[in-house]
């Protein structure tokens, strides 16, 4: 609330993020208020034999929510690969193994930074697509403006209830998913998955096939562990990162006639 009032008073654009947020900050973010928030809050608001409804604060860490829900035999373990908050899971429409965030979202409370009023959005209002939503499109279109910017405050999730008592199995499944992610994805500095997978291709495979895996432009390089992770060292500049991005897009286009699209947001 204090951040909102300060931003409104000083005509600033708010950027909220958590430690893993699929965001790349450039060296020019004047007139913006950058807020890192950590919060975990959710409550059950209704239940029946088929599903329960939960009200979840948008900055709840997704895998913390998954861990807690396992105790009541709710299976959201497929989404454990997305290492961030409910906010970013909604904005990016987190997807894995035929499960998407849109499959569980009923509605969300949204702060409109143009009117400074709260709005209630239903699932269809988000216009979900593969790893995309209306809010993400607006962020990409209005990086230098304050109008048409939205902040998700909380949401209602509809989560199916299983009749089987399988808490131990779900814990094992979650552990395996997290271990598989750790085995396949690097832990060093990155903005997480850099490009969308251009169906039916995989971005990492295209980057490998044009021999850019581990290729460096000064202190920016594609990870040897997962080629769709653009990694950085301490002395990297935004110019190095964008040069490597442009090189990958150009070579993939020349070789395979495929357009790579960024999955991350660049401010």
CATH architectural name of the largest domain: 2-Layer Sandwich
The secondary-structure class comes to alpha+beta
In the sheet with the most strands, the strands line up as 4-5-10-8-9
H-E order? HEEEEEHHEEEEHEHEHEEEHE
Largest sheet: 5 strands, antiparallel
* Average pLDDT reading: 78
What's the topology here?
Layout: H1 2-10, E1 13-17, E2 23-24, E3 32-36, E4 42-47, E5 51-57, H2 62-70, H3 86-91, E6 95-96, E7 99-100, E8 105-112, E9 117-122, H4 134-141, E10 150-160, H5 167-184, E11 190-193, H6 203-209, E12 216-217, E13 220-222, E14 229-232, H7 238-256, E15 265-266
Parallel strand pairs: 1-3, 2-15
Antiparallel strand pairs: 4-5, 5-10, 6-7, 8-9, 8-10, 11-14, 12-13, 13-14
């Amino acid at each position: 609330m204090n951040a909102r009032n300060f931003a409104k008073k000083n005509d600033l654009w708010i950027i909220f993020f958590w430690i893993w947020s699929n965001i790349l900050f450039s060296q020019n973010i004047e007139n913006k208020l950058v807020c890192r928030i950590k919060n975990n809050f959710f409550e059950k608001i209704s239940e029946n034999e088929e599903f329960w409804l939960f009200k979840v604060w948008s900055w709840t860490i997704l895998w913390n929510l998954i861990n807690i829900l396992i105790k009541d035999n709710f299976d959201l373990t497929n989404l454990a690969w997305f290492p961030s908050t409910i906010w970013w899971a909604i904005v990016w429409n987190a997807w894995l193994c035929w499960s998407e965030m849109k499959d569980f979202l009923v509605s969300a409370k949204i702060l409109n930074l143009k009117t400074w009023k709260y709005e209630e959005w239903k699932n269809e209002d988000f216009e979900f697509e593969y790893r995309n939503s209306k809010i993400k499109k607006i962020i990409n279109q209005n990086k230098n403006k304050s109008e048409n910017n939205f902040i998700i405050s909380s949401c209602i999730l509809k989560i199916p209830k299983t009749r089987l008592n399988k808490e131990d199995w779900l814990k094992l499944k979650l552990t395996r998913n997290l271990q598989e992610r750790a085995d396949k994805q690097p832990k060093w500095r990155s903005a997480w998955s850099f490009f969308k997978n251009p169906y039916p291709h995989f971005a990492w495979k295209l980057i490998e096939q044009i021999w850019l895996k581990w290729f460096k432009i000064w202190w920016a390089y594609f990870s040897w562990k997962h080629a769709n992770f653009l990694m950085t060292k301490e002395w990297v500049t935004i110019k190095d990162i964008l040069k490597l991005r442009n090189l990958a897009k150009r070579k993939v286009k020349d070789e395979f006639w495929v357009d790579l699209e960024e999955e991350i947001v660049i401010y």
